[in-house]
């Protein structure tokens, strides 16, 4: 299927946001945080948690950088290659987001047992529902290769069911936000929180609220704007899931190891 030339501005916006998120933001954050990551992650003993953290940390370089850049800028792609390439991109992105949520959940569980059981329930919900919903929403994708000379790459021009993926994330992020805010509120009323728990609740709540807002924005864009804008914020949200999870994990380890008073958060 070929897209009409009038779609070019919308698709160019999607490409520009993807390019900024992947080419600039992801490597920049990795370089900026490398010394802290070496100190608090790489030098720690090898555990399952460390392995999961590193997978979710580096997976965006695979699913976003290689897959997304290839299918945005590669010449001579067929529509079949474009279709299956975007399906692969969405599946790996979904796995990456799920891993980020698992890593963050495990770290919070270690310090707050009251948070463990309700959070594990919504984690199971995400693990069971998200893969099925991702497969169902990606099956009817329609892709396009623009009939314009020297225009590289291909795009999704119709993905009306993709919004259901963000609905699943929205349910998860909303539940997690509530589970973070309720104990934080009661602990504050009873006399405050230790530094470590304050970091967990404060940064964790900010993280989930930001992801909640991004998921909501994605749903609104998909349901109200033309179908060409289906994935305009997708790559950015994918990258932010990884970056903010990594920041929060490192921040928790900083406070746990130094027992310092935190005046602000590095989110």
From TrEMBL:
<feature type="transmembrane region" description="Helical">
    <location>
        <begin position="57"/>
        <end position="77"/>
    </location>
</feature>
<feature type="transmembrane region" description="Helical">
    <location>
        <begin position="206"/>
        <end position="225"/>
    </location>
</feature>
<feature type="transmembrane region" description="Helical">
    <location>
        <begin position="162"/>
        <end position="186"/>
    </location>
</feature>
<protein>
    <recommendedName>
        <fullName>DUF6533 domain-containing protein</fullName>
    </recommendedName>
</protein>
<feature type="transmembrane region" description="Helical">
    <location>
        <begin position="89"/>
        <end position="109"/>
    </location>
</feature>
<keyword id="KW-1133">Transmembrane helix</keyword>
<feature type="transmembrane region" description="Helical">
    <location>
        <begin position="17"/>
        <end position="36"/>
    </location>
</feature>
<keyword id="KW-0472">Membrane</keyword>
<feature type="domain" description="DUF6533">
    <location>
        <begin position="21"/>
        <end position="62"/>
    </location>
</feature>
<dbReference type="Pfam" id="PF20151">
    <property type="entry name" value="DUF6533"/>
</dbReference>
<keyword id="KW-0812">Transmembrane</keyword>
<dbReference type="InterPro" id="IPR045340">
    <property type="entry name" value="DUF6533"/>
</dbReference>
């Amino acid at each position: 299927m070929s897209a009409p030339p009038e779609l070019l501005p919308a698709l160019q916006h999607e490409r520009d946001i993807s390019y900024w998120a992947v080419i600039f933001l992801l490597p920049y954050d990795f370089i900026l945080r490398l010394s802290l990551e070496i100190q608090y992650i790489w030098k720690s003993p090898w555990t399952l948690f460390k392995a999961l953290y590193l997978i979710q940390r580096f997976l965006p370089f695979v699913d976003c950088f290689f897959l997304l850049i290839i299918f945005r800028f590669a010449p001579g792609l067929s529509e079949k290659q474009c279709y299956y390439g975007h399906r692969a991109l969405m599946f790996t992105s979904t796995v990456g987001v799920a891993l980020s949520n698992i890593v963050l959940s495990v770290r919070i569980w270690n310090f707050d047992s009251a948070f463990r059981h309700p959070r594990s329930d919504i984690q199971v919900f995400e693990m069971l529902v998200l893969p099925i919903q991702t497969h169902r929403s990606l099956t009817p994708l329609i892709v396009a290769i623009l009939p314009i000379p020297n225009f590289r790459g291909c795009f999704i021009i119709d993905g009306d069911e993709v919004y259901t993926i963000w609905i699943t994330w929205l349910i998860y992020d909303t539940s997690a936000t509530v589970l973070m805010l309720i104990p934080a509120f009661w602990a504050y009323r009873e006399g405050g929180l230790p530094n470590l728990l304050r970091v967990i609740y404060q940064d964790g709540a900010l993280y989930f609220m930001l992801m909640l807002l991004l998921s909501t924005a994605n749903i609104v864009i998909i349901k109200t704007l033309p179908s060409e804008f289906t994935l305009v914020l997708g790559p950015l949200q994918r990258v932010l899931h990884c970056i903010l999870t990594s920041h929060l994990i490192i921040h928790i380890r900083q406070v746990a190891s130094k027992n310092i008073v935190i005046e602000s958060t590095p989110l």
